[in-house]
Amino acid sequence: METQKTELRIEPITEQNRTEAESLHIASAQTGFIESVVDCLKEADKKKCWRPVGIYAGNTMVGFAMYGFFWMYFPFGRVWLDRLMIDERYQGRGYGKTALRKLLNRLQNEYKRNKIYLSVYKENRVAIQMYEKAGFRFTRGKDIHGELVMSVKLSD
After folding, report:
1. What is the model's pTM?
2. Sequence-ordered list of residues with C-beta below 8 angstroms from that of 111, at least 6 positions apart, any chain
3. Staple partner for 77: which of 53, 57, 71, 113, CB 3.0–4.6 Å?
């Protein structure tokens, strides 16, 4: 399917849209590839470095993402796009690809960094293909959960 003409936008998760975000779900075949939105938001409540956001097509939240900056990566820190999901009802419409592009622009502008990291399970072939098309490459590293680390160098 082609991307619908509705422009996607990224909005912070707030008390007003939290319940809507928590109702988003991945397809059953994707179970284990990403934490639930409920779990992500609990983590963001504890660690203020996380920035959870909703992905909207018009007035409908179609997806969720979470990103942040981590100083623990010496000496300069790292910007991580740690979670990205499109609700199972809206998959196959190009929203993931468009959201990824918008998120990368947002991260570059917000953190003034050109290198963005993420991690992915090797079995998540669809996500890996999307990330590779966006310029991500494997770093040969793994995160604390055993996921493969990928990074992209964005142009200035």
Report:
1. 0.88
2. 69, 79
3. 71
CB 118 within 8 A of CB 143: no
User: Catalytic site residues?
Assistant: 131
Confidence band (pLDDT; 50, 70, 90) for 146? confident
Residue 6 pLDDT grade (very low, low, confident, very high; cuts 50, 70, 90): low
Q: Which pair of tokens denotes residue 10?
A: 């990224």
